[in-house]
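Transporter, putative
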Amino acid sequence: MPLPTTPTIPPPVPEAHPTGFEPLKSPLFRKLWIASTVSNLGGWMQDTAGTWLMTVLTTSPLLIALMQTAASLPVVILGLLAGATADIFDRRRLLLFWQAWMLAAVGLLSVLTFFNIISPWVLLILTFLLNIGTAMNSPAWQAIMPELVPREQLADSVALNSAGFNLARALGPALGGLAVAAFLHPITGAGWTFLLNSLSFVGVILVLYQWKRNPIFKSALPAERIYGSMRAGIRYIQYAPPLKAALGRAFIFTVFVSAVWSLLAVVAARDLHQGAFGYGILNGSMGLGAVIGATSLPRVRRKFSADMIIAVSTAVFVFTLMILAFVRLPLVIIPVLLMAGFAWTSTMSTLNLAVQVSAPGWVQARALGTYQMVFSGGMALGSVVWGLIAEHASTPISLATAAVGLLLTLPFSLRLHVLHGELPDLRPFRSKFLVPQLVMEPEMSDGPVRIMFDYYIEPEDYNDFVQAIHKLRDVRLRDGAMRWGIFQDADDPRHLNETFVMESWIDYLRQRERFTASDRTIRDRVVSFHKGPEPPRITHTIYAKERANPDPGSNPPKNPS
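Tokens:
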């Protein structure tokens, strides 16, 4: 008889840490990432060539700084509109249209440059037109990321997109400067650079054309109008504190850090006495640092909070601005710019992720459009301010002022927490009945609509209930309610009535459709305090207007389950 043996316990499997490259296993994400990286490479070559061409066409620091404004201002003007269109229309078709727009704008710029029909204002106008396409393209592009990778890989996909963007930034400026310097005249070099950039859009267009899109959120209701969609986006942001915190930090950071981008060409030409290639090396140093930062970000996030990452990045840029202001040694400046690039991509990727995970699918592009608008608004405003100070005082004074301002605003920005606590579950939660079953069938345009919930709460639960239902208040308001209130019955203190008003019946249906899993948790917490024999009674009332056939029905309305 064999002796009993002790079962062998397999050794523990070491915990697998994500490498950050998992999204590249998706063929579609990989193709789009490669195509967009090539396109961004062309964009950064153009940025360097265009900015340097402006230094050839004019000696005005203000006009040179306005190149940054021309790149940022379209997003300030169109960010929310771009987000609204991306939430209403098919994102794939929008991306195809705006990629073609950018191809045409850059192609025209290259032709005018080749024929020497170029001036500072022509360059600014065509740069502005190009960046209209960038502004309208960006929210839709970022909003398709959850359609390309699983939710748990979203942070890595954001970091990889940032890595691709900054890899292009690392190589593009140097290649752009080299392309300009390779020709006897910088205008000819700039023309060839612009032409190469126009060709870089072709790959993105081909991949998008072949994509068979399957959107995550599909509304069963008629599409929103543009104006209403923009209002809904603003309303959502107004009642979403995590989203407002990310937007606030983005604006504060970019206003002051924009001094680096807007004045680096002036520092290279006037203070360091470098040509186009030297400027490309300085710009590319920041890009290389940004690539290192993007590839290191998954490990950095495991060790440090988002607030700590942004605070350290702020300190790095204070140091960078002071070095650019007072140091004239490229061997000192280049390592500092590498650190600044690392800090830049760490902050921007963190803030971008914070916006993406703070907005559900129905409003995500509008949230991203607003983020782009705030981000570029800070860049555009800062570029004008630091350009004016540099023109009327000096470049060192402008850079030093930006450094002091960034340092002084740090205590305030630290109060705006980003990616703090447990992240909400923003997956759509569909009610059993989307349309309430009523005797009188309202028209979609009928309204305003008042909805009332009747709760019966025990006295000992009163304070907990009020606290819970005020969290539900934010859900109602950000999903479309015009007004909200909770009222206690003076004749029966156990009876509390929640009332909110929607602009129309279709807005109420949209509010129900927008309910997320996280919203359901908040609602279930509220309902758990109700002690009546039946679920809370729901009453729907519609503003009374004269009707051609006033027959509201004879049976009492039925509440939806």
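The beta strands are 449-456, 483-488, 495-502, 537-542.
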